[in-house]
Write a structure and sequence with these properties.
This protein has about 280 residues and is α+β, with helices and mostly antiparallel strands. The chain folds into 2 domains: about 210 residues, Ribonuclease Z/Hydroxyacylglutathione hydrolase-like (Metallo-beta-lactamase, Chain A), CATH 3.60.15; about 60 residues, lambda repressor-like DNA-binding domains (434 Repressor (Amino-terminal Domain)), CATH 1.10.260. The protein has 10 helices and 14 strands. The strands form 3 sheets. It has a 6-stranded mixed beta sheet, with helices on one face. A 6-stranded mixed beta sheet has the order 7-8-9-10-13-14. Helix 1 crosses helix 3 and helix 2 crosses helix 3. The longest helix is centred in the first third of the chain and has 12 residues. The radius of gyration is 19 Å and the shape is elongated.
Length: about 280
């Protein structure tokens, strides 16, 4: 597990992951992509598997076939990583990365410095780090916000609610009672912080993005987005690639460009950075 303001990690999706994800979403046969890229089918398969460029493909020819922006894809291929973020302005934001099922997943804890009231966004696989932070900083864990119902994001929800029985759940999950479902026109106030919700289905039918405003020292807003996008990539469009892209454009990319983007996997980024480099958009 990793707890901290700064989480150093590689991109969630390497170049090959991005190409394969886009190709499958676009419904384009691998042989067609390989031909356009100037690669053999085996060479394309090896690239998708490893992300390692042994023979440089023709990005300009194959990227449009699978709805990727060639110039942005080339930046990923050249080793792009998110720029360093000054996390010192977010004194009361923590990234909690836990591992399970051969993957890692991010959860996020925020709190108000005066009231010590805290909110957790997703649970990850292990509540141990959450409990440690709550005890270490003398917090009152009041709210649990769920970005979507995929197992890696809610794996620890039962032990968390057992330990904090008064915590209020906020989600779009179909199984939750109506009083726990997201009210899009309402905001949750956490001391000086304001948490609002935006529906972002496409990766998952119950997907929600949470926007947190009011951090001290005029720190930029924070958007906790689940698996809508990753730094340099996008979540798997389990519902519809068109719907997911539409919701990202309408509900995430319309936020201020300085907004800190907190995805469910991989490193943090900003709206401005993703507008500039994400090859899916």
């Amino acid at each position: 597990m990793n707890i901290g303001r700064i989480v150093n990690m590689m991109l969630e999706d390497h170049l090959g992951d991005i190409i394969r994800k886009a190709r499958v979403a676009a419904g384009v046969e691998a042989s067609r992509v390989a031909t356009a890229a100037g690669l053999t089918l085996d060479e394309l398969g090896a690239l998708e598997q490893s992300g390692v460029v042994v023979k440089s493909p023709n990005y300009a020819e194959f990227a449009p076939l699978i709805d990727l922006v060639a110039s942005k894809l080339e930046r990923i291929a050249s080793g792009w990583l998110p720029a360093p973020i000054d996390y010192s302005v977010y004194r009361h934001l923590r990234v909690i990365t836990t591992a399970g099922d051969d993957m890692t997943v991010n959860a996020y804890l925020i709190w108000d410095d005066v009231t010590r009231e805290a909110a957790l966004f997703d649970t990850g696989f292990d509540i141990g780090p959450v409990v440690k932070l709550v005890e270490e900083h003398g917090l009152y864990l009041r709210h649990l916000f769920i970005t979507h119902s995929h197992e890696d994001h809610i794996a620890a929800i039962t032990p968390l609610r057992d330990l904090f029985p008064k915590i209020k759940l906020h989600s779009n999950m179909a199984a939750v009672p109506s009083e726990q479902r997201i009210q899009l026109n309402d905001a949750v106030i956490l001391g000086g912080l304001r948490i609002s919700s935006r529906e972002t289905p496409g990766h998952c039918a119950d997907g929600v993005t949470y926007v947190v405003e009011g951090f001290p020292e005029s720190a930029p807003n924070v958007a906790i987005i689940g698996d809508c996008i990753f730094a340099g990539s996008m979540g798997r469009p389990n519902q519809s690639v068109a719907l997911l892209k539409q919701k990202v454009r309408e509900q995430i990319f319309t936020l201020p460009k300085t907004t800190l983007v907190c995805p469910g996997h991989g490193p943090l980024t900003t709206i401005d950075e993703q507008l500039e480099v994400n090859p899916f958009f």
